[in-house]
Every structure is written in structure tokens, then in C-alpha cells.
């Protein structure tokens, strides 16, 4: 159905202009009931969208600032791959102090989602020690030597508690800040994993000690290499993962 499904949010809902930054989705600003919102159209299956929208509602109820989904007139949170979400005002982080606030927000996300079920079809970094595929990851497509290096990095995370990770919080475009709150947007890569993967931030804003930072940064580089393989960025990230 595509964007034609917008009428299910009301007869006066219209697309305003495309928004940049997304890769896997078509994202537009939307005017709904006189307010600006965000519409995102993609090809994710219903089970995946149900996981994401329920997560955002949970975080919103717990007091976090997230792009909470706006229901259709009959109460659905998505229709044929289309989700309409609250628009997040603000600016990206710029200073060390800003990034420390981002780290605090991520730790609150991790605290609120301990024991959360895995996103349908996804695998965590430590799951990939034993399987080759999970959503966008296909280790069989990577060089064998690269897979060995990635798995060695992920093996250092075994036994740690898991929770929902945002998946790409070090990208400033995924953060919207104001004087009194930090909002995380673009939850496409969120899944259940070890929280360290979220805490490799500029200026070591999460204040990890040397050992913890090394473990997290190596595991994060391995993850981004695997999930993006094989574009130029993934090749660059794989080069950062040390040989065994």
C-alpha cells in the first residue's frame, strides 16, 4: 500500500518533505492534526515493527524521550510497513559534556530493558559465535580470517548481562538534545545485546576503564563490520579489529 496508508491516521494527514539520514527507509516529515510528526516507510515485517513500537512505548512510559509511535484512528501502531512517530526537536551532541549526557541516557535504556526479548530474526554478538546469520548479518559472506577476528572480539563479551542496545548512538545524527533532555532516534539497529556495544562514544564519554574500553571498541568494530558487510565503511571497521 505504501504512503497511501497515511489516510488511516486521519483524513487531514499529509506528507510535507523528505528527511535525510535514513538508509533502509523512506522518511518524511508529516503534518497530523496540525502538528509535525515523522513518517517512516520500510519493508520490515510486522513482527519486527511490533517489537520496535512496543519497545518505544515502554521507554516512553518509563520517562525516556523517544519517537513514540502515533496510533492510527483505529489504534494500530503500523500499517504495511508505515509507522508515524512523534517528531523530536533538538540538536546533535557537540561537546564532551553533551556526550556524557548521551552516555547517561544509554545507561538508562539498558537499565529499563534488562530481560527484554530479542528482536525477531536478530542475533546478538555472542550468538554469532555459534551461528552465521541473523537479519543483516551473514558471516559466510565475509573473509574467513575476518570472521575469526570478529568472533575473537565478541568472545570477550561472553557471560555478560544483556539488554536492548540502540545500535548506533555514536552517530550524532541519531541524537536530539535540548537543555533538559536527550532523545535517541532511529531505532532501526536496536536489538538485544551486551550494553558495552552502545558505550563506545566520543571522548570515552561513558568513562570506561582502559580494559573495558578496549573490549567494547573491538566488539563494536567487529559488529559494524559484520552488519554492514561489505561496503567501504565495513571494510574500514574490520581493519580495526585486531588479528588473533
UniProtKB/TrEMBL annotation:
Molecular function GO terms recorded: kinase activity
UniProt key word Transport: no
Record flagged with keyword Chaperone: no
Per its UniProt record, what Pfam families does this chain match? Answer: APH (PF01636)
In terms of InterPro entries, this protein maps to: Aminoglycoside_PTrfase, Kinase-like_dom_sf
Which terms are listed as keywords in the entry?
Kinase, Transferase
Checking SUPFAM superfamilies in the record gives: Protein kinase-like (PK-like) (SSF56112)
Residue ranges constituting the Aminoglycoside phosphotransferase domain according to the UniProt record? 16-200
* Identification of the protein by name: Ser/Thr protein kinase RdoA involved in Cpx stress response, MazF antagonist
Q: Which organism is it from?
A: Rhizobium hainanense
